[in-house]
Amino acid sequence: MGEEVKMTEYEGVDGDDGGGGYEERVLEWEVGLPNADDLTPLSQPLIPPELASAFSISPEPYRTLLDVNRASKSTLSNLRGGNSQAFLSNNLKSFNDDRGRDPMVVEGEDETDRDGSGCDSRKLRKIDSTEEADSALRTENSMDDPSARALKRPRLVWTPQLHKRFVDVVSHLGIKNAVPKTIMQLMNVEGLTRENVASHLQKYRLYLKRMQGLSSDGPSSSDQLFASTPVPQSLHESGGNGHAHGNGHLPVPIPMPYPPPMIPMPVLGMTNGHGHSHMGMTMGNTGGTSGYHGFESHPYNMLQQRNWSGNGSAVSFPRVVPSDN
DNA sequence: TACTTAATAT
DNA sequence: GATATTAAGT
């Protein structure tokens, strides 16, 4: 309620030419962002008066909400003007959070080490506030080959958000009707291909099988993502004819607990950035067991990069070693 | 054509 | 070794 949905769409220039013909749209969306209550009001002074005077920091005059709003607007327009097209072009796109976050740039080529010194600023990015602080960064390889561009698609990273959406769709479809194409359509994620979905579906099925075969108990703590996205009960029947099951909350179509039919592009890693980013997702759930709540609020942005340690979360399914099968 | 499964690549 | 992509079979 009361959320404003601003979006600017424009047609991508780089994307595809050969086969698809679908335009790549970049939507600047603000849906689902934390509402005002969740944020520290900018109108409040960040530095206590005592501190300020102690360090001779000139006290900024109080700002009214209006001032803040105005500033935000100008910032936004700046962003729009300057960066808006960076998404799918060859430019690197880096989001800087308001606080000075390091706009790490990914390496382009197959360099093994970017520089001699092993100790650099690239060490760790601390994820404070909530783990939603992801920066999306996407780099196009320095492929100059026009022929190759259409073929090489960046690696898709299944972020928790993306996965959740996936699970939702699958569950609402019923596992039987959940086929790649349908899932893809329902997810309605720009840039997501049927192959992507099929692949993930394959993995997901394996996961389900494991879960089922093992016991009715919760998954191992290995992979939070799948663990935190509980398998809906609807994943059983829902056979041929579409009769809504049990809870009867979904007529037949697709109940999407999500914002309308449009979601920005998923996160794509780089083709040449082969690397092992085993990221230890620091499940910073404040409460702990309550699943995740802070998630929905952000886009599927996350960089799959090799050297980031400590952030980014790719999907993984709880690893359960098959004892006998 | 689309789905599933297996192999391959990163 | 895990995850995603690509190929092969139905």
Offer a concise description of the structure.
This is Transcription factor PCL1-like. With 325 residues, this protein is mainly α. The protein has helices at residues 49-54, 65-83, 146-149, 160-173, 180-187, 194-214, 224-228, and strands at residues 156-157, 267-268.
Biggest β-sheet: count, sense, barrel? 2 strands, antiparallel
Q: Could you tell me the radius of gyration in angstroms?
A: 22 Å
SSE sequence, one letter per element: HHHEHHHHE
The overall strand count is: 2
What's the total helix number? 7
Mean of pLDDT: 52
The largest beta-sheet arranges its strands as: 1-2
Distance between the amino and carboxyl termini: 50 Å
Query: Uncertain runs with pLDDT below 50, 5 residues or more?
Result: 2-52, 59-145, 238-254, 257-264, 270-312
Helix content: 10-25%
Keywords: Nucleus, Transcription, Transcription regulation
Protein name: Transcription factor PCL1-like
Subcellular location: Nucleus
GO molecular function: DNA binding; DNA-binding transcription factor activity
3D architecture notes:
Helix content is 24%, strand content 1%. The chain starts with 48 loop residues before the first helix and ends in a 57-residue tail after the last strand. The protein is globular. The longest helix has 21 residues, at 194-214. Helix 5 crosses helix 6 (194-214). The chain has 325 residues and is mainly α. It binds a DNA duplex (10 and 10 nucleotides) through residues 153, 155-158, 179-181, 194-196, 198-203, 205, 269, 271-276, 278, 314-316, 319.
